[in-house]
């Protein structure tokens, strides 16, 4: 389903990248290992929220193929159109996850792979708290980001101008814990996307569980 979200800086970047993004990150072993971690711990036919779902591969495709019910949300109409074609067994919506009505406690797991980087630090913290609340108590949370201590940094990503904000690794972990999540495992890797304009980037993968009570806003 495409509601339209054109005009967002993130939407413009990923509209332009389209399937090039999937190809650039297809070789990420850490991403696939993160999905395997989730699959080993899911209840049968679990309900999963995939935030920043992109082209639907590998996250939504892997989880839907294992029999899970996946809702993917992305700000890019182009990405949502591609994902809907590529992963017909999942549901995709175009919109800003910060504004989308989602019932608390309605998901068994949340995936948040590299979707924070074009938000302010305050927005990132707020979104993590919100996504923790949409998890059922004991639900799982997989997060990946680029752990750099930068705020409002103007750079180029795969030929696209981007403004990036992030945290150092220990500060990311602190943010996750403040949201009410327990970190069960973490992995730090270096990865170079398969794109002529890409450079090596550090990546942090966290696997977490929601505590029985999530913090309030």
Automatic annotation (TrEMBL):
<dbReference type="InterPro" id="IPR041698">
    <property type="entry name" value="Methyltransf_25"/>
</dbReference>
<keyword id="KW-0808">Transferase</keyword>
<dbReference type="InterPro" id="IPR029063">
    <property type="entry name" value="SAM-dependent_MTases_sf"/>
</dbReference>
<dbReference type="GO" id="GO:0032259">
    <property type="term" value="P:methylation"/>
</dbReference>
<dbReference type="GO" id="GO:0008168">
    <property type="term" value="F:methyltransferase activity"/>
</dbReference>
<keyword id="KW-0489">Methyltransferase</keyword>
<dbReference type="InterPro" id="IPR050508">
    <property type="entry name" value="Methyltransf_Superfamily"/>
</dbReference>
<protein>
    <submittedName>
        <fullName>Class I SAM-dependent methyltransferase</fullName>
        <ecNumber>2.1.1.-</ecNumber>
    </submittedName>
</protein>
<dbReference type="Pfam" id="PF13649">
    <property type="entry name" value="Methyltransf_25"/>
</dbReference>
<feature type="domain" description="Methyltransferase">
    <location>
        <begin position="48"/>
        <end position="139"/>
    </location>
</feature>
